[in-house]
């Protein structure tokens, strides 16, 4: 760095500093954000020591990507991957209440009264849920929008009103919707889409 040999791995450098390793210039990694349509059985991790497929294996890139939040192995749908730690933190921090929409297929028909209970908030073992948007899509299918991110929350909310989720798919994260992206497929977000995500977490 400026002709100085540095052996401290924690040494801070600025974007404009000339940093070289064995004479080769070190550049900052380009920030990438990808959307993946995660299939059931794929895990929301960067590395998986077991036999299951980690979600990062669905993306073709040299960047070291990490999932933004989690999506259970038995759930499918929209999952973001990025190497932008600041963006990931903002999108998942409870303070910013970035909405995430889920479509749940249910074991039995859901009553209108149960939809109203879900919208008002239901009592779970870790406390009451916040009021939320809930709409019926079919006799046994609902869409729920969450602004909080507790473990298996959609499944537990529906259990609290006497129903059971048989399939769960995330269809939106902030302003980004899954659209027609095929299952197991991934695409890199445009700069405009990334900017929209940033604005959703302000």
How would you characterize the overall build of this protein?
The longest helix has 10 residues, at 191-200. 17% of the residues lie in helices and 28% in strands. The mean pLDDT is 91. 25% of the residues are buried. The strands form three sheets. Strands 3, 4, 5, 6, 9, 10, 11, 12 and 13 form a nine-stranded mixed sheet that branches. It has a two-stranded antiparallel sheet with strand order 1-2. Strands 7-8 form a two-stranded antiparallel ribbon. By secondary structure, it is of the alpha+beta class. Strand 11 (165-173) and strand 12 (176-177) form a beta hairpin. The protein starts with 19 loop residues before the first strand and ends with a helix. The chain has helices at residues 85-92, 112-120, 153-160, 191-200, and strands at 20-21, 24-25, 33-38, 66-67, 76-82, 100-106, 123-124, 127-128, 133-138, 141-146, 165-173, 176-177, 186-188.
């Amino acid at each position: 760095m400026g002709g100085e040999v540095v052996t401290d791995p924690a040494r801070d450098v600025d974007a404009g500093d000339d940093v070289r390793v064995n004479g080769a210039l070190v550049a900052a990694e380009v920030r990438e954000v990808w959307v993946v349509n995660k299939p059931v059985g794929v895990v929301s991790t960067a590395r998986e020591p077991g036999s299951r497929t980690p979600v990062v294996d669905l993306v073709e890139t040299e960047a070291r990507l990490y999932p933004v939040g989690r999506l259970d192995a038995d759930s499918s749908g929209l999952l973001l991957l990025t190497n932008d730690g600041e963006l990931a933190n903002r999108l998942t921090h409870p303070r910013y209440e970035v909405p995430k929409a889920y479509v749940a297929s249910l074991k039995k028909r859901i009553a209108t009264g149960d939809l109203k209970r879900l919208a008002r908030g239901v009592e779970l073992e870790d406390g009451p849920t916040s009021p939320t948007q809930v709409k019926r899509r079919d006799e046994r299918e609902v869409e729920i929008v969450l602004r909080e991110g507790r473990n298996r929350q959609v499944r537990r909310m529906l259990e609290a009103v006497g129903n059971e989720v048989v399939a769960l798919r995330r269809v939106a994260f902030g302003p980004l919707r899954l659209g027609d992206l095929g299952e197991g497929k991934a695409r890199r977000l445009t700069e405009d889409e990334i900017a929209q995500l940033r604005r959703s977490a302000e």
